[in-house]
Amino acid sequence: MAPPRFPVEVIVTPRFDLFYALHALSSEAPTPLGGWKENAARRLPRGFAEAARRVAPIPIFWPLLADALQGTAGEMTFQQMLSALKTMRANELRANILGGIFHQRSTVHSLLAGKKTLAQVLTDEDNTDTELLAHFGLRPYRGDSPAAQAMSTLMSDATSYREELSEVLRTFWQSGFRADWELLDESARTEAARIRSLAERNSIADVASALRLPVVFDDASGAMRTKSGTVVKREQIERCYLIPSAFNTRRWWAKYEAGGDRVALYFPVWTGAEAASALAHRKPAIEKPARATTKTRVPNVNPEAVFRALGDTTRYAIASLLARNSTTSAELSRSLNVSKPTITHHVQALRAAGLITEEADGGSSRLSLNRDTVAALSDAAVRDLFSSTGELQLLTTRHRRGGPNPI
C-alpha cells in the first residue's frame, strides 16, 4: 500500500507578495525586480518611506511582518488581510511577530507575560537566537536603534503599531500595488493550474525538487526536512500551501502552528522575474478607492472554510443577523447577549472564510454577510465534493477526532 500523501493545496493570494514587494522596494540589494521597483517608487505618496520605516526599520522586517497574519485562512484577499490585522488582539499580534524573531517559545512567553523586558532578552548573553537577532538589527543591542525602537513600540503599544502597519499596507496597496496584483492575477492563476497538475501527477518530493522549494520531502519516511535539520512529520502537517509568487526572489517560506503539534506550511513559489518585470512598462497610476456600491469580486470560495465557520451555532446566528441588516460588532454583542471579545473572535472566523464585508461608518465599521460568497458556495461545494480528479483531502478530519475542537 502506498504511503498517505502530504496534504497539498495550491492557492493564489497576495498575503506574502505584498510584504515581499515592500522588502524589494526598501532594500538596496540588487534584485531582478529592478524595473518594477523603479516604477513603484515613483508612484508612492510623500511621507510613505518615513512611515514605512517606523514599522519596518530595516528591509528584512517586511517578510517578518507577513507572520502577523498567521492563524488566518490560507487564501485571502487584501481586504481580508487588512480586516484580520485591524481586529487582531494586541497579544496575538505581539506573539505572531515575536515568534519570527525568537525561535525559543520560552523567550516569547516571558516577553508576553512581562517576566522579562525586551532589553533583558536582547542583552542576554545566553540567548541562542544571537545570529537571528543580528539579522534583524537587534544585536548588538542599542535601545535607540530603529529596530529596537520599533520592537519597543510593539511591546508597549501594540494597538498603535498595528494601526500604523495597517495604514502603510493600505497606502501601498492603493498607490499602485492593487493594480499590479490585478495584472499579475491571470499569470498567477495559470501558474497555479500548472503547479496543481504537477502535484496531482507526482510525489511531493518530486514537486519540491521541480519547484526548487528550500526543503526536502521524503515520501518513504513521511517527513519534511529543513536546511537546518529540523524534521516535520507528515502527520504534523495540517496543510502544505503552494503559492505562485512574483516577488519571492529569496525563496522564503513559513511554518505556522495550527493547533496542538500540527503546523501549516506556506511555500510562495517564485515564478521568475518576467511577471513582475512586465509591470515596469505600464504607466504608473494612483488607484481610486472603490465606491461603496461596487460589488466585491469573490475569490475562489473554500467550501471547507465556509462550512467550518458556519458550523458553530453562534457564528450561524451572527451570519443570519448580518444577512438581514448591516450592523456593528457592538450591536451584535447586545443583540446576542455575548461578550465583545467573543463576538470579535467569531467575526474573525467568518471574515477569514470570506463571509464578511465591511463599510466604514464614522468611527466604526458596519458588517454585512457577503452575499456573493454564499451564492458561490453551492457551485464550489459541488466542484470539490463531486470532482473525479485531484487528491481527496481527509487527513484534517481524521487527525482532529478526539483532539481539540476546531475554531
Structural features, described:
The strands form three sheets. A four-stranded mixed beta sheet has the order 1-5-7-6. A three-stranded antiparallel beta sheet has the order 2-3-4. It is of the alpha/beta class. The chain folds into two domains: about 10-95 and about 160-280, no CATH class; about 305-400, Arc Repressor Mutant, subunit A. Strand 6 and strand 7 form a beta hairpin. It has helices at about 15-25, 35-45, 50-55, 60-65, 80-85, 90-100, 105-110, 120, 130-135, 145-155, 160-200, 205-210, 275-280, 305-310, 315-325, 330-335, 340-350, 370-385, 395-400, and strands spanning about 10, 215-220, 225, 230-235, 235-245, 255, 265-270, 355-360, 365-370. It has 19 helices and nine strands. Helix 10 (about 145-155) crosses helix 11. The radius of gyration is 21 Å and the shape is globular. The longest helix is centred in the middle third of the chain and has 44 residues, at about 160-200.
- Helicity level: 40-55%
State the order of secondary-structure elements, H for helix, E for strand: EHHHHHHHHHHHHEEEEEEHHHHHEEHH
- Describe the sheet with the most strands: 4 strands, mixed
By helix and strand content, what is the structural category? alpha/beta
Q: What is the count of structural domains?
A: 2
What is the strand arrangement across the widest sheet? 1-5-7-6
